[in-house]
Amino acid sequence: MTFNLNTIIDIAIAALVLWLLYLQFGPVRGLRTLPAREFNRALAEAPKEALLLDVREAGEFRRGAIPKAVNIPLSALGRRLGEIPKDRSVYLYCQSGVRSKRAARLLKRKGYSRIAHLKGGISAWNGEQAR
What we know:
- Residues 46-131 form the Rhodanese domain.
- GO terms for molecular function: transferase activity.
- By secondary structure, the chain is an alpha/beta fold.
- The protein has one domain: Oxidized Rhodanese, domain 1, CATH 3.40.250.10.
- It has helices spanning 5-25, 36-45, 58-62, 74-77, 98-109, and strands at residues 32-34, 51-54, 70-71, 90-93, 115-118.
- α3 (58-62) links the parallel β2 and β3.
- The chain is elongated.
- The N and C termini lie far apart (63 Å).
């Protein structure tokens, strides 16, 4: 079997795209992904200093959020890391779970170790919401 240069380039591009998709959407080592019931229980049992972080944009946050959540949008998270102490447990959520997973990946790279996120985001949440 012989490959021409175009076939090799196509295979390399496909492999790169797959690798980038895996990095973006694949598992985050050390991240606890909790369904709504477990997330709610973990919040109730968490130490008082634990941080509940909503990484949705401000407009989404204003439409309804989990009580006591702090809003730091994913788009601003890199600039606002100083507001998130590394010695606290951090509970993340967004609308569907995608942005909170991306936020977890960023926090892990920056040295945060106690991170959990709400599987399915606030869309899966069945608890109280503050408005």
